[in-house]
Protein 1
Amino acid sequence: MLDGSSTSLSGNGVFIPNRSDVVLSSPGVASLYLKPGLGGGCIYNGPFKNHTVNLGPVSSGTTGVDGGLGYNPRCLSRDINPYTAARFLTWSDVLFIMSKTDIYDFQMNLQGIPGIGIGAHGGGHYTVGNDMSDLFSSPNDPSFFVHHGQVDRVWTIWQWLDPVNRTYALAQTNTYLNSPPSANTTLNDTVQLGFAGGEIKEIGQLMSVVDGDFCYIYV
């Protein structure tokens, strides 16, 4: 998928040497340090080697125009990182997540527990690196959609292991890690898709891949 061939999503970025570790910090917990990957610069092969992105960077250390939210045409860059993949993204990691029987434990281990790890979700972002590791501009990278398809697949398979108790299970609040503090999420809370378009939906309408608006399965 990322080998740089004509049928891939392109490969790595140009290697940039002598870079510092990526430091991930959360209030009240120890920082996580990730080694740099094997790229760091503009993608140089495959279908997206000349792809231009216009948003960001926002949260990846080098802030773009208007805090990263302004018009900033630039190349798509990657820093593919086998060290991060081996640390957070193995089959054992995914099976450990799937072994959780409670939605809170499943969710926290998939997303990553601050100060301990970045989970398989964060692991996918930081394995590809650069734009993909930027919270706001990660959808610039086509691999974002493949990765999030897999995140949805893991959640869906977890639901199917106990559909009665898991399909509509929720945990935590309306803000990530309750920062800033907010109310507990309910199935009646709404999701606004913004510039992606579409109607405002209740969360309960979006929990199953075979009920409501959706009709698809994973194999």
Protein 2
Amino acid sequence: MRRASGRQFDAMSLTSLSELPKARRIVVKIGSSLLVEQGQPRAQWLYYLAQDLKRMRDAGQDVVIVSSGAIAMGAAKLGLRKGGRGSLADAQAAAAVGQIELARLWSEGFSMFGLTTAQMLLTPEDLEDRRRYLNASATLTRLLEAGAVPVVNENDSVATAEIRFGDNDRLAARVAQAADADAVLLLSDVEGLYDRDPSDSDAKFIRTVEGITPEVMAMASSGSSSGMGSGGMTSKLQAAQIAERAGIALAIIDGRCEAPITQAVAANLGTVFLPRRHDVARKAWLGGRIAPKGVLTVDDGCVAALLNGSSLLAAGITQLDGGFDRGELVSIANSHGERLAQGLCEYSADDCRKIMGMRQRDQAQALGYAPRSAVIHRDQLVLL
């Protein structure tokens, strides 16, 4: 049985990619375009990547893989058009076939280095629901303790258009939270983040990012250059937002070369997103959730109170969009529509509408029962 490394690593102190070998536990995400070419696995590339990961394991690091490629591999086997993404039904069928191929690929690729792999297929509900999230976290922890390398993918064979991650970048960040990882490494088909489209001759490479701002988001291109994956730079920045609130470092490197991790770390070439804070476990989970059921728009006074650590009160709510039940996740936005927080609502959408804008003393008559202390208590709320 392999025990996790006892060394300590503070992701908040990381300043460059060259320091990544100090991390205790890393989630490595591999995109479809790197792993699969014309429906066939890139066997030689995978061999050198597995060698990379074996070196990390030998150095005492725990490794979790988040792997795309099931739809691409399954589509080739079934002869489906558009790489299996022509329709939801095609994607589900391709994933069902491809998952078997993908699991075999990783198992055989790692076995030659004496490593045991374990497959985990997750849906958003597995990480959005608190109890299921804790179950997934416990499974990941036990697998790592036992010396296995978990290989995680979204369960595309049952995911619907409405209920899915849609890309494995954000899944990797959420898995990093559940696995208590220090860092996420996104292997991409570009070296990292540029201040504009990399094809522009004036584009400048960004090595370090301290916080995802609207200006940073504006640098992203939403498309994947390969045309095969579902995530582009925008999804990677969204993943960085999830990671940075949980005290997890995230880096983007070029995965196209052989032994990409070794080469990127040696050359210190990639974009590193530095953590901004380290929320407690429950707050990090709340901040990482990606499927709010509604939006509560609040006035400027309420914004100031929330930024000062207060709960959300009904008096500050000016608008409500969406439908939700008590206890479900909702976003909080300012008057300009900018999301500033999210949390678990103490009221259903219908009851929220009855009391929005009201002081607490007037709420009982509108509700027909005694009001709660807040619409969203500060213990169930996280700033974004």
